[in-house]
Amino acid sequence: MAGGYSRRDYYKINALKDLRFQFYQADGINVLMVKGTSLNADCKLFKEVTFGDHVMLTGEVLYTIHDSEKESLIYNNGKYWSLEAIEKPHEDTR
To answer: What is the pLDDT of residue 94?
Structure first.
């Protein structure tokens, strides 16, 4: 959702509710969090910088919830990627 719909006037919560996502209220900040994710991070906005038609947000992580049983995904360039551990090569193969 984040990468495909980045307009300020697009209310992503309603779109996710239409897709039957469930939410819970974050602790300490007034934000809805998606239930059932591999990672949720409550963040406080630290800095907002405008670069032309883009805005970079920098935040401080206040609290995290991580479910190690779930697979983590990365969204980049319109595609989802799996995030997996990489085994260290054996000494003989270096």
So the answer is: 65
Domain presence at residue 25: yes
In terms of residue numbers, what domain contains 63? 12-93
65: amino acid identity, one letter: I
Residue 23, SS3 per DSSP: strand
Q: Are 13 and 30 in contact (CB under 8 A)?
A: no
> pTM above the 0.70 mark?
no
Number of domains in the chain: 1
CATH number where 48 lies: 2.30.110.10
pLDDT at 15 over 80: yes
Q: CA 26, CA 81: separation in Å to the nearest integer? A: 27
55 with 48: CB under 8 angstroms? yes
Read off the pLDDT band of 57 (50, 70, 90): very high
pLDDT reading at 43 higher than 50: yes
Cα(23)–Cα(21) distance, integer angstroms: 7
